[in-house]
Request: fold
Amino acid sequence: MSSGLVLIDKPSGWTSHDVVARLRKIAGTRRVGHAGTLDPMATGLLLIGINSATKLLTFLVGEDKTYEATIRLGASTITDDKESEFLQVAPAAAVSAITVEKLQTSLDALRGEIMQVPSSVSAIKVDGERAYAKVRSGDEVKLAARPVTIKRFEVIGEPRLVVEGENTFLDFDAVIDCTSGTYIRALARDLGANLEVGGHLTALRRTKIGTYSVAQAQTLEGLTPEAPEVLDISAAARQQFVARELSAQDEIDLRHGKRLKAAGETAEPIAGFGPSGNLVAMLTKSGKDLKSLVVFAGSNDD
Reply:
């Protein structure tokens, strides 16, 4: 199979590793990786790199992302989502008292540049072990806050009161544009804390990574060894990154470890394309020059 990206609309119940394993069988190669983990509960866009496109994943992991989420106010949980038991449930009166104005005020506090404490069941390593593994073994995990930027956090449609047994909740759908490293479960948790009723995530769908959309993605059910839809590595890089068109000599120089003169590029990284249109290298600025971060083989099929 040629090198490139396979855009998958991940179903609920599959881990990101499950999807990679499936693509390894279909592609007939172990050179398969993904950019940006999705929890098993979550659905939506997963970028899978095949062969030399795995080297492109490094530059895609940090791209901004868009999510659609359903958040439930009125209860906090161990995992900050619906996959675990309640820690605390708020009185029905407190939940019913949440007005649209109160909700919007609390959302305002979670927009822009914020310091976010990741969920304790994240994949962040603590003393060499994943945080979620430590929590599941009974350890208490406290993670340090980290900066993230929430560019958009908007309510979609009307919030709705939901009564389940003796408990009353306020559910609402939201769309979130955010920088890489943002935990949507943590947003639900912190929103509930701001409103003093607790909150957690009940549904999550990733719809965009950078310029790649879930509308471009294919389902796992539709994948076959004969007909996987692969976005060629050069087309994939051209879609996402600033392009530098290289001369034949530029390509030779890069392949010999030399630098190029910058030509006013403002965004990084930069994708360098040879005269044939093939992706030659990913570049970054170094003073007045451009230096290669990674150089791809002469044929992007490698």
